[in-house]
């Protein structure tokens, strides 16, 4: 019992007692490294496929991004909801319930993946047309997606388990799980694509195997190393209350990823109107911009367990410092990286394509997306804060708004400004969403600011 208590204290140190800057860096740096590893994989994937000198194949990978977002949405539905719930439970010193939540998260993710696979296999052809695949890209997109359909249970479980591991402050363990899968991806990519001549299907297969490796690591950690969580079937005791707490926050993450699917589908279909060069340029720019987007996500997602724990423990001073410090760090790093990428935009795009048209349109798209990075990062942080508080209304509104606003902006942008309207649609919609998030956040700031403690209902 004494050993378990020591493990609990070590696990929760960064959530509860560590200096704010140290706690933020402990949670954020491993997450950034994980994201950077993921970026390296995505870039490597695109790099190897690009070496096949097939623009249609490169466009197919871009079209398939929307499908990947569906799996991400399902993983985050359980993972984000369960993760923030676990952090709040730990703030209340309730590790028994945290174990139940973690187990429910894992087994629900696996079951959802199996159901998803059973539904998608007979509907593969309609899905391909919905994604915008046509002509030469149709077969390539089908081969890529088929592998992900079969591997859906592992992809969803990987995403959901990573969230709960990080929820207890174990950011390093979370990083190890993510990076191990990415390393496997990178090793297997050239083997499957070139040596075994599996082409685009090989890239997908390498990714799914990487997800399986990550899931195995997370299961090992939660069963053998964690003192406050478990994926054991004996802790799988579903209840209406637990699912309610998971879903009310998880739905915001689900909608965010779901609307990402919608926006990606619209982006793909509108981009296809202007040819494969625009689609390929969009795909390259999206991969490059992830370098900055994942920095914002690293801060916003990394800080969520810290925010949730302090909020549940009613430590308002620490909560206020965590939020302020996170915002300052995130804005500074995001701006710095944006300036660097802008300065080398032509060279960066040129790494992935020698087609002059792709390079030209890729630079335009990259510039527009660089302009949206600050807005996107702050929007994600506001959403994360609302998720950490367990406030389903605000977090769901933020997640929905990012997709809803984008649709009319894209449609009218295309009508009025053709391809330029499509390129700048994301920047405009992210800016608007950020403004709404700021207004919603200011509405709850009085409850966080110690100067208003006397006025707070708590």
Automatic annotation (TrEMBL):
GO terms under biological process: response to antibiotic
Pfam families registered for this protein in UniProt: MatE (PF01554)
Gene Ontology cellular-component terms listed: plasma membrane
Compartment list: Cell membrane
Molecular function GO terms recorded: antiporter activity; xenobiotic transmembrane transporter activity
Keyword list, A-Z: Antibiotic resistance, Cell membrane, Membrane, Transmembrane, Transmembrane helix, Transport
Official protein name in the record: Multidrug export protein MepA
Transmembrane segments: 23-43, 63-86, 106-124, 144-161, 173-194, 200-222, 242-267, 287-307, 327-345, 365-389, 401-417, 423-445
Assigned protein family: Belongs to the multi antimicrobial extrusion (MATE) (TC 2.A.66.1) family. MepA subfamily.
InterPro entries linked to this entry: MATE_fam (IPR002528), MATE_MepA-like (IPR045070), MATE_MepA_subfamily (IPR051327), MdtK-like (IPR048279)
Keyword Hydrolase: no
Membrane topology term: Multi-pass membrane protein
Chief site of localization: membrane
